[in-house]
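re the bet — no i am not wrong, look at it urself. input seq straight from the record:
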Amino acid sequence: MVDLTIELENRPGVLARMGAALGRAGVSIEGGGAWLAGEAGLAHFLFEDGAAARRVLEEVGIRVLGEREVLVQRLNQEEPGQLGKLCQRMADAGVNIETLYSDHNHQLVLVVDEIAKGKVVSEEWTLEQKKREKSAKQHNYNVDIVWTGSDGKGTESYTSYRRDFSLAGSGKPTVLGSSAPAFRGDPSRYNPEELLVASLSACQMLWYLHLCSVHRITIIDYRDNASGTLQENQDGSGVFTEVTLRPRIKISPSSDRNKAIRLHHEAHRFCFIANSVNFPVRIEPEIAS
């Protein structure tokens, strides 16, 4: 990855012209930012092919001031203070961080004055992070899925089989499932989409109850009317675009209502399931006492 330092005129449309030129050439910006520096605009953008990006920009009259190799690092977002610790490591090694931003994969990008020294610090940091990940607790979960809709003909045709299945875990009741009714499923059974929404709702609730108990907020009643939106594409594929949780909560009169509301955001930050999906999970709580 290469960082380009780019000088931009301070007038409307310059960034649009730059983006259009790169787009026509098929050159993607991987991260960066732009801001005013005095009377001129200054940008730092990240490219896989710095030479190609530089050529495109200079062809349309945009001046490239510098081209630098970068350090790319991923921080543990669950641990506060990671950025400060990494920057201190760089400082202790005599490395000055000249530019810092994030790329589209949520990785930290650093432009430094001593790239060789910076690489040593970055590699040591990565090695330590991997060791910590290996020593972290891991939990495994197993379920058995059995398709029960063959009816003797199997998948001879699109209409020859039922979408029904059973879901079971060791020593637990069986859950009857199917596809959603829109996809020829049994409406009396739970479908995978509903189970996903339910997982997000339950995870949020369990974390919230835990945090409330720690912070001395007494929950008397908790109910959630959760919903999810699935977008089906023309080729038959699909993707969830969002899930909204609507917890309706009753707390004791002595509990701090403002703190009870704030703890919803904290619970969302901890939720294992919400941290594992790539679509927004919105929380719309209502609290009464």
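see?? The CA atoms of residues 126 and 132 lie 10 Å apart. told u. also The mean pLDDT is 92. so pay up
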